[in-house]
Amino acid sequence: MVTASVEAVTSNLLPDAGTEFGARVARRLSDDKLIWLTTVGADGTPQPNPVWFLWQSPGTVLIYNRPDANRLTHIAHRPQVALNLDGNGKGGDIIVLTGPATLAPDATRACDNEAYLAKYAEDMARVSGSTEAFSEAYPVAIEVTVGRLRGF
């Protein structure tokens, strides 16, 4: 298992891209379409949900949400979250990021975010009819500040 801790965030959160693990982490954060966001409910139960995400260097993950999403209440009361990329189905290719999530009221709307559009425009139109309609349905942005990354 490889771990990058909070101390590493100040220099470089991601593992060395010259290593197999580092190259895989960078590629998956850029290319994967889904990540599992796990918040914690009021009763202490973990609440995992697959979400679309955008990796933002040097170490945040942007996620757009519906205003009525329970995860927003969870984050308001218990901001520590986990983000997991799907494994390979055989117990490998595991990447887990953890850190606090906060509302990002100044974030660009999804339909105006060039990087988000490059990754999801087709999907946004498929789900909501247009990128603008998606932005109206998912107007609440959160950012997860990654403090720790681990995987193998």
Number of domains: 1
As a percent range, the share of helical residues equals 25-40%
Q: Say which CATH homologous superfamily is assigned.
A: Electron Transport, Fmn-binding Protein, Chain A
End-to-end separation in angstroms reads 5 Å
Overall mean pLDDT stands at 92
The secondary-structure class comes to alpha+beta
Summed up, the helix count is: 5
| SS elements, strand count | 9
Please tell me how large the radius of gyration is: 15 Å
CATH class value = Mainly Beta
| Order of helix and strand elements from N to C terminus | EHHEEEEHEEHHEE
CATH topology: Pnp Oxidase, Chain A
Any low-confidence stretches, pLDDT <50, length ≥5?
2-11
Largest sheet: 9 strands, antiparallel
CATH architecture: Roll
